[in-house]
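Course assignment 3, question 2. Fill in each field.
Student: A.L.
Task: Predict the tertiary structure for the chain below.
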Amino acid sequence: MDKSGDLPQAAAHAAGARGGSSTADDERGAHFRQAYAAIDLGTNNCRLLIARPADENFVVIDAFSRVVRLGEGLAQTGRLSDAAMDRAVAALSVCADKLRRRKVTLARSVATEACRRASNGAEFIARVREETGIALNVITAQEEARLAVLGCHILLEPGHGPAMVFDIGGGSTELVLIESGPTVPRILDWKSVPWGVVSLTESCVGEGQDPAARAARYAEMRGRVRDAFADFAARIAPVRERVWATRGELGPLRLLGTSGTVTTLASLHLDLPQYDRKAVDGLVLPAESMRGIAARLSSLSLDERRQVPCIGRERADLVVAGCAILETILDLWPAERLGVADRGIREGILRSLMSAGNAAERARAAVRQARNP
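Answer field:
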């Protein structure tokens, strides 16, 4: 997946609320009462956000997240396992119940790398529709990158030069080179590789029984990710050099990450006893601190990682792969500081839906004005 200009806008598969409003104010009021929803079914997690518009932003009124490991075993078999599909359907059933209770009529539900790669992905999508009523849209890696940027770019440090946004998922990682704009950033280049925390962990089997074996496995992980990003690294090298050549005129390299990996490592940087989104979302910290935490985690055994606060049993086996991906990203875009976002695809979906709703209202108002000058 090579160089691209601005990524195309995705059509939101949504049904509009019907009502009897006859004035622009009535319709605007209906828009702000409307509940919008976004579901992101990834390789590792199933996440839901339900929100209402609030001026230029939105207010979350319900949320749900569950580790489902949909991509478990996919690297070996090329298929979604029965157990993994059962877990995902159970989580999506909870989401469907929340959509009904919140009377959501504008929603978009997406699935990513696991469903893109699995030979039985289409069968799974059909099963989800039949059992839960949720129509999952398997989006491209390009659309996944666009939504991630749309959802988190407001947390990027101010600056004038190009910046890098990345999303380390369960089955893939997206890197997006952007240029700040007055509203939504312009995408200069991007790359998606099929290495996420689940796929990389399952491809580099074995935990390693001693420090030397663990170091060798970590080096193998980093090598695989580095090779996958090699062509993208070559493309962005001139951009990186141009920023450095300005001697600070464009400011430092800017980097923003959205993923469980960066939020978990940020929690360790803050020495939190348990995860706290308010403390982590929007945090900017030294990149070297993240490297140090990554190196330490990669040297620990599985049992030792399970004892680390904010990691626990759910992330203990996957966090090393995330560290390998993060360190490789820091190699090719060596920013001194790293921004952390606990937001991404779901927020990008919500912003797209609400923007479309606003555009529809403006169009209806223009038609009424033309009819009644």
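Instructor remarks: The chain is about 50% helix and 20% strand. Confidence is low (pLDDT under 50) at residues 1-27.
Grade: pending
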